[in-house]
Amino acid sequence: MPVKNLATWNAVIKGLVRFGELKSARILFDEKPQRNKISFMTIIDGYAKVGDMAAARLLFDELLEKDLFSWSVLILGYVQNRKSNEAMKVFGKRYAMNVKSDEFIMVNLMSACSQLGCLELARWVDSYISNNSCDLGRPHVAAALIDMNAKCGNMDRVNLLFEKMPKRDLISFCSMIQGFSIHGHVVQAVVTV
User: Fold this and answer.
1) pLDDT by residue (tens digit) across 85-108?
2) pLDDT confidence band for 192 (50 / 70 / 90)
3) Is 155 part of a structural domain of the chain?
4) How distant is the alpha carbon of residue 108 from its chain centre?
5) Phi (first) and psi of residue 117, to 5 degrees
6) I need a surface site. Which of 36, 62, 159, 172 has the fewest CB within 10 A?
7) Complete DSSP assignment for the chain
8) Does the pLDDT value for residue 78 go beyond 70?
9) Residue 128 maps to a domain
10) Residue 184 belongs to some domain of the structure
11) For the chain, what is the domain count?
12) Repeats (PPR): which ranges (predicted)?
């Protein structure tokens, strides 16, 4: 191409990342004359997908203007790589900076909490969601909240959330059954079916 702009550079980098050519994508990223958030997020997401969260975090730290999307990509990367403690630390850093979180960050945070299985942390996350007007009417938010509470052993909260759901789906039923089963409530697991 005789003339390359930021969009064309980003498109090539994204294509390389998508096909698993992360090394080539990084070379282009380092050589390109301009970078924007899309450039950074594409490479960070690529590193997260291959499990190199150290490289993803280094690039994230280089990003001067972090927004909801960039924080969300980093937290999701840690969750996908089962590094829940790191995801919680990143959220804690955001929280200390008084930055509001959206439902996507909260769903990722609930996934991290589910992986940890910590009841105290689940209660804090649940309280944070309730106090920060996160829309529990959205199916993916409600399902994540049920799953987190079930895996952390807060079955009373799970029952309450499940009963309040306007429309129950397969995911919510599976979370209920799994929660009861994990915590030795076999009869309730069978009755839920």
Assistant:
1) 999 999 988 888 887 788 888 889
2) low
3) yes
4) 3
5) 70, 30
6) 62
7) --S--HHHHHHHHHHHHHTT-HHHHHHHHHH-S---HHHHHHHHHHHHHTT-HHHHHHHHHH-SS--HHHHHHHHHHHHHTT-HHHHHHHHHHHHHTT----HHHHHHHHHHHHHHT-HHHHHHHHHHHHHTT--TTSHHHHHHHHHHHHHTT-HHHHHHHHHH-SS--HHHHHHHHHHHHHTT-HHHHHHH-
8) yes
9) yes
10) yes
11) 1
12) 36-70
pLDDT in tens, 136-186: 777 788 888 888 998 898 888 888 888 888 777 787 788 878 888 887 777
Kindly tell me the burial class for residue 95, based on how many C-beta atoms sit within 10 Å of its own C-beta (0-12, 13-18, 19 or more): middle
How far apart (Å, rounded) are the C-alpha atoms in residues 184 and 37?
47
Quickly tell me which residue has 């306007």 as its tokens: 166
Write down the pLDDT at residue 129: 85
Per the structure block, which two tokens stand in for 169?
């789906």
Give the count of beta carbons closer than 10 Å to the beta carbon of residue 156.
Answer: 9
Measured CA to CA, the distance from residue 94 to residue 90 in angstroms comes to 6
Token look-up 């009417």 returns: 137
Domain that holds residue 161: 101-193
